[in-house]
Write a sequence for this structure.
């Protein structure tokens, strides 16, 4: 065997190793919390929509093809981006709305396409279709992926509940093993210092404990960008990210 491991093999090995560097987040009072504001932009030509042929379950899924615009940008503002601080050990509490979330399957699509859930939070998976689905989730770790939930959900099985637990990455892709065009994403927030950008690409993260951090911006189709920032007591920090076609 070669003494050198390929990147692919290294990625597989990473899936088997728990991430011991991330201690469980603790809620604690924040003194002199700061604020991060900014905008996520897109430059260049917007990629063409992805198209899939609907091959089965036409009564539930419709006929023809599904068209999905994976890069949604307007006037230079990129939407569908999560901006977050990595490896925050303690601070403010999680917002209530991400402690329990719902993923529905409607007309053979995941609704919503992207949302955040607190790590350990409850994920309720609904099947509103008169069709059999098989929800399959993967923790995305660089170019590798780790299978998480693999749940057969017949049309009469309307609800399944799971807890959002990841090992190394906050990014979870949702697929259906029955309908290959069904895609969705969960961002598993390992701390509450995150923001889903608005329609204008802008974001705000508040009550950040003073310190040095890695600020990251993740888009499901365009990947992750990151930068180092320092937050002073009561300070305000501006940050900007620019994505382009791969």
């Amino acid at each position: 065997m070669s003494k050198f491991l390929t990147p692919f093999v290294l990625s597989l090995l990473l899936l088997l190793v728990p991430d011991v560097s991330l201690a469980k987040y603790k809620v604690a009072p924040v003194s002199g919390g700061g604020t991060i504001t900014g905008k996520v932009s897109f430059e260049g030509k917007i990629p063409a929509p992805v198209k899939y042929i609907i091959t089965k379950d036409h009564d539930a899924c419709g006929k023809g093809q599904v068209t999905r615009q994976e890069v949604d940008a307007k006037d230079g503002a990129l939407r569908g981006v999560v901006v977050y601080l990595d490896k925050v050990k303690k601070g403010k509490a999680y917002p209530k709305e991400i402690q329990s979330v719902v993923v529905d399957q409607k007309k053979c699509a995941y609704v919503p396409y992207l949302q955040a859930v607190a790590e350990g939070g409850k994920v309720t998976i609904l099947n509103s279709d008169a069709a059999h689905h098989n929800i399959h989730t993967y923790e995305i770790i660089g170019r590798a992926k780790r299978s998480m939930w693999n749940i057969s959900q017949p049309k009469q099985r309307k609800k399944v509940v799971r807890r959002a637990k990841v090992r190394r990455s906050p990014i979870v892709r949702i697929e259906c093993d029955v309908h290959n065009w069904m895609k969705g994403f969960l961002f598993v927030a390992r701390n509450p210092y995150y923001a889903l950008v608005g329609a204008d690409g802008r974001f705000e993260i508040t009550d950040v404990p003073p310190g040095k951090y890695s600020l990251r911006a993740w888009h499901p189709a365009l990947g992750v960008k990151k930068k180092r920032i320092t937050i002073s007591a009561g300070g305000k920090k501006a940050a900007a990210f620019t994505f382009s076609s791969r």
